[in-house]
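Researcher: Re-running this chain for the archive, since the previous output was lost when a drive failed. Same request as before.
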Amino acid sequence: MNSITALLAGLVFGAGLILSGMVNPAIVLAFLDVAGDWDSSLLWVMGGAVTIGSVAFAMAKKRKSSFLGAPMQIPVATKIDKRLLLGSFLFGIGWGIAGICPGPALVLAGSGETEIFVFLAAMLLGMGVFEIIEKKQR
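Model: Regenerated structure tokens:
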């Protein structure tokens, strides 16, 4: 049952990314170009996501287990540190260069376009480098 629920949630999420335009790098880059020909349409998408997410987290905090019976695991970290800022900076640079982030990249992999696989390879390489650095610091 968990696999079917995960599949359905992924399909709904992917469909939402497609319908909202988040998988179109041109729309994303136009949204990020606040000093040029700015496209504000993704502001509504993000605002809707934050609103729905806020309500969902508020409801989840009141529960001991998920609807599927798994224990609730709500993030509790509140510290803004060098690691968070560096990660945010690197994510923003990558998003600004490519106009794609990890979720839309996985959706776009279904298109079969070569460019997205270059992005995914670079993303996986970056994740691998992070894991190596983390293991050395432990």
